[in-house]
Design brief:
Shape: globular
Number of helices: 6
Oligomer: single chain
Strand content: under 5%
Largest sheet: none
Number of strands: 0
Amino acid sequence: MPFEEFAQLVETHKQEIAERAARALTLMRLPIYTGMSVAHIAQIYLPSLEVFAEYIRSNDLDSYRQYIQRVTAEQQQQSFSMQEILATGDTLAAKIREMLERKLPGPANETKRLSFNRRLDRLITIGQMTGVKNSIKE
């Protein structure tokens, strides 16, 4: 599988990614995260990173869209705004990109990083479009 290594990197470093994303989200001062600890926010997104790694691996876009629809609906029921949902997705993606830069450094890994980032871009775009479309339906 061409993206197995990418999926394994996300799985192996999911705690680090979640913690870095949680710190960034608290600095953004999004209302939904007010009063939450970094550790609590990180715990919220660990399952999403596990699922994300599976979709990197499988490329099962129908299941991925269904997952995004379900998570978006759940978050909206918990009073997340669409802005907060999208900011969270963007922040998780940014922290995955940073992890790729750290774990696959230098020119020798540039082609691999570009390939992994294209896969990430595709999944993030599909997630954003699905989430927004889902929120409009409701």
